[in-house]
Amino acid sequence: MLAGCPLRPPVPAPPAAAPPPAPAPPAPAPHEGTPYDIVADASLLTVLVYRGGALGSAGHNHVIASHQLSGSIYVPADLMRSSFEVHIPVATLTVDETALRAAQTSPDFPPDVSEGAKAGTRRNMLGPSLLDAEHNPEIVLQAVQLERSAAVAAGAAAADTVLVRLQSTVRGNVRTLAVPLHYRRAEGALMVTGEFPLRQSELGLTPFSAMLGALQVQDEMRVSLRILACSAPRTPSCKAMAESPR
Question: pLDDT tens digit string along 74-119?
Fold first, then answer.
């Protein structure tokens, strides 16, 4: 009976619907107006990273820094149409410079970090599991849009503050972020500063973790930025801003 009643062939399942394509990232703003070139030796990026995990007390908080920022800021008549492109060479990032660590007033950053701990942190940071400096030699920041938030627009004292939507390219990951930045202008010179929290996951990175997560780096970091840019090499205003208190 079984031989005379063959089973009907199975009906093939319909093909799964293809997922919708990811939206393309917004294009960087076009460059308009007067270019101001970044002065590397008067500019500084610092990133505070914090230990975490059940064995976090065995690790350290660290100060990551770059003194090698390059690029330009373009300033047209309408300041809100300004744009920029900033390059940060990954291989020049430092870990726990003595002066920068001493500048941290928090007890979370005591001075006693061994050279071995600094070297190990830098090796992990530049290695293939995080920034992969060998294949991704720089971080790029580009302006997408400048705007005044309702909170900023409400206060005359905050008239020199803008909300910047920027595109970050870190290890090939393109992300769009919104950060508040302050600016100060003088003839031929522009100072941009900012301090804000930022998560590694917002940059497309996975925070370092070891020993099944018992020793790890927290996702949230604290970023401080100071950029001096000048329209001509070392004008009087440029020199004055370079020497102003940080």
Answer: 999 999 999 999 999 999 999 999 999 999 988 889 988 899 989 9
- CB neighbour list of residue 30: distance below 8 Å, 6 or more residues apart: 83
Query: Residue 170, Cβ neighbours under 10 Å: how many?
Result: 22
Which segments of the chain does DSSP mark as H helices, in order? 98-102, 115-126, 150-154, 236-242
Given its phi and psi angles, is residue 71 left (phi above 0), alpha (psi -120 to 50 degrees) or beta? left
Predicted local distance difference test score (pLDDT) of residue 34: 94
Q: Check if the beta carbon of residue 217 is closer than 8 Å to that of residue 191.
A: no
Task: Report the side by side order of strands in the sheet with 51-52.
Answer: 51-52, 215-217, 209-210
CA distance 59 to 185: 42
Count, residues in the chain: 246
What does the pLDDT look like over 1-38, one tens digit per residue? 334 444 455 556 666 565 666 567 788 889 999 999 99
Q: With a cut of 80, say whether residue 154 has pLDDT above it.
A: no
